[in-house]
Design a protein that fits this description.
There is one protein chain. By secondary structure, the chain is an alpha+beta fold. The protein is 32% helix and 15% strand. It is built from 6 helices and 5 strands. It has helices at 19-30, 48-52, 65-78, 107-111, 123-126, 130-149; strands spanning 58-60, 82-88, 91-97, 162-167, 172-177. A 5-stranded mixed β-sheet has the order 1-2-3-4-5, sandwiched between helices. Strand 1 (58-60), helix 3 (65-78) and strand 2 form a beta-alpha-beta unit. It is globular. The termini are far apart. The relative contact order is 0.15.
Amino acid sequence: MSNLQRQTIFTTRDVGHGKATSARRWLANFDDKLNVEISDSRITSENAGDLLAGVDLVLDGTDNFATRLAVSDACVAERVPLLSAAVGRYQGQVGAFAGHHAGQPCYRCFVGDAFDAEDCDTCAEDGMLGAMAGWTGSFAAMQAVRALLSGVASFGDPMWGRLFILDCMDPGMRSLTIAKVPECKWCC
């Protein structure tokens, strides 16, 4: 119930059902020609590689660092680019990482290794403005299209190694470049 104000594809009828199953049902109602594969498995460092194998791009919107780091590590190992989207209180972040390319940072280059513990804060604990999820999600979707069309259409540069910070308290967006950490043991 607490997610409904920020996750617009779900309704009260979905409470008690898995998010992946409910999302697939929403997509089928949206466009029945979409071919969607789901997994209700929790992503861990042990299964992330198998879950992400063969994909063109990962768009991560998970809400804890342990999962984010497992996804990032699997993306580097599977040679898949990663778009990371996060929301906390009144800010959103969208970062594009291609740590499998020489000279490009991975997500760990951005946050380090300090957040491997499962006990880090989540948006459920810290709270968040529901509209920030929409703004951040829309921007992440646009960046995903940009990344998928890179080299195919003139939509622009996927901006690997850039982090965009969306702020609703002082409405606007700023960006910064994430440097590759030379001693990072996870990426090239």
